[in-house]
Amino acid sequence: MLFLPGLCLVVMTLAVLQTMVIPIVGTIGSQLEVSPSAAGWVLTANLLAAVVATPVIGRLADLHGKRPVLLGVLLLVLVGSLIAATTSSLAFLIFGRILQGVSYALFPVALALLRDEMPQEKLVGALAILSGTLGVGGGFGLVLTGLLTADGADYHRVFWLTAAFIVVAITFAWFGVPSRARTRTGTVDWLGAVLFAFALVLLFLALTQGHSWGWVSVPTLGCALTGVVVLAGWWVFENKTAAPLVAPRMLTHGPLLATNIATLFVGIGMFVNFLACSYFVQTSSEAAGYGFSADVLSASVVYLLPGTAVGVITSTCSGRLIRRFGPRKVLVAGANIGIVGFVFLVFFHDTTWQVILASSIVNVFVSLALAALPNLLMAEVSAADTGVANSVNSIVRTVGTSIASALLTTMLAAYTITGTSIPRESVYTVAFVAGALACGIVVVAGFAIRLTPVGSVSESASGRRSDASRFTDECVDNRVYGQAKRPKTSGSGEPARD
């Protein structure tokens, strides 16, 4: 009874942790009396920890059991939250945010748990609800931040709230997630993990620090080029390893590649909506000639909360839509809805109701897309590869959100009204156009996704799979896409087993 609500609460906690700090980076800098670039490491360190930890934790969950790994991650995140809530030192705050960054691994582990434990007839709807919670939680985190930090209140409140969230999530996970005996053997490809993490850290440093370092500066270009070289070396190494952390062919397989491309641009569209709308409505209308002079509280409650509510409703309906039409059609339809929302924002953003309506429309896209993507992903990988495949997909979405954040921040700082530090209105117009283009790419990627016989990618990438595992995956595939295939059987009529 507590299983699905508990996992939803875990994912909600992750989403809240991702977005709650974004509006208060400036507040943290002023209250700790540090520079904006130094305060920015509160975000950067969190992302770096996420890209390092997520694939390794996904693999550990596949090998050693998802429940103990899930609880262990939650405990680490709780420690990080308590450190952030009690310290007034930037160094310790960054350390706490590093521990919180491990929370990004919670989403792929939760998805893998659903695949293991949820009855087959309820799996699609459960996946949709869990995934939709991710988008809803992101908006919810921004709203909570506005409520907690109104009128310049102490930023520590935000981290105390995250600690409370995590305590509740641990309680639900402890009593709601069943324990399974370890059934798989194997080891973690630690060298591959180190190479992959090092490459991603370098690339993320270039992406997140390019604005403060300078996009063509030696540190930025050095990190980017070295990251590309290390990533290429990792690719060669993984192709020669018998048990790789991430099988390269799992990444290049057509449907998985298209799904990850779609995920990248869903992340971009989601954060363009969150950040651009939040910054836009907080712009002083008297000084800029546009915007609504909203404070953080008003921006959260008046402008973002309605979209969050719409996202909740959409998430509850998405499972039924996926069962009826299939995840690919839902993804494409959702992306088209996102195009409508962003195009509306391009031309109509002069009144409050216009911004609220358009942002809510984009939230429909985000909720539908986040619900459809895991179903598409799980139709292409074996149960044994679910954790690591979803971990890579989560990293891809994080890259998308980071790209949106970095580019928007750069544009807002670079193109300002003469004699002021206020961004030009055209910057927001370009951002909304970029959001529409991101949705358009999701549409193209959705049409490029073609279902293949389940197991083809996993068998070629990870070795032979058991017929029992293949039978489980075929059940998922048949139900989602309405196919009439029958699983292979043994002579007794039962699913064939090794």
Automatic annotation (TrEMBL):
Q: Does the keyword Cell membrane apply?
A: yes
Membrane-topology annotation of the record: Multi-pass membrane protein
Residues of the region (Disordered) are 478-498
Q: Name one Pfam family in it.
A: MFS_1
Q: What is this protein called?
A: MFS transporter
User: Where on the tree of life does the source sit, at the highest rank?
Assistant: Bacteria
Assigned keywords, A-Z: Cell membrane, Membrane, Transmembrane, Transmembrane helix, Transport
Please tell me whether the keyword Transit peptide is annotated for this protein: no
Q: Where does this protein reside within or beyond the cell? A: Cell membrane
- List all membrane-crossing ranges: 7-26, 38-57, 69-86, 92-114, 126-146, 158-176, 188-207, 213-237, 257-281, 301-318, 330-349, 355-373, 394-415, 427-449
Specify the Major facilitator superfamily (MFS) profile domain's residue ranges: 1-452
